[in-house]
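lol ok so funny story. i was supposed to be doing the assay writeup but got distracted and ended up predicting the structure for this chain instead. priorities right. anyway since i did it might as well share w the group, maybe its usefull for someone
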Amino acid sequence: MIDNNTLQYLSQLPDQELVARVVGQDETAIEYFFYHKFFPIFERIVRHSLHNQLETNELINEFYIYLQADNWSKLKTFEWKSSLSTWLTVVASRFFVKKKQELTKFDNEKVLNIDDFTNVLKLESTLPITHSDLYDAIHKLRNPKHRWVLLSELLGYKPEEMAREMNTTVINIYNYKKRAKIELVELLNEKKDV
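and the output, tada:
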């Protein structure tokens, strides 16, 4: 949670400096960027584009993962020919229109379908992954937090619920999930190579 003095300080930063801090992995700047300064953009997308089908925090988390991929490469391509909020609105709207069906499907299911879960993994092998293979690989993950997050996702827990349970931020949950899936794919690919 950002205190009032920090909020005031960050609100006075020029957009270019804020983006530089976000790209530099400043966690306070990232939280301010997504949950304060541009939060109204995400609320509008929820209301107008997605007709309140998804929670705003879920959208922010999905968009955070998208923007920070490849060391913030998408955000780094912004050329400052328009305002940052205009660019962000366009990019976020396009992203969520594409993701709408997938996000709605996962959000509406009480228990995540294991086949859907494995379909989003980028596996090198064309051999099918059994449920047993998946659970075995999850249990072999080195980091217990990563194991817990993936198993919780399969049980239908939302990121906000996981964050409360682990006493951490939702952004950390998404980072755990991303790292866990990378390691999981490596383990599953190794298993299929044997």
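The chain is about 75% helix and 0% strand. The two ends are 47 Å apart (CA to CA).
back to the writeup now i swear
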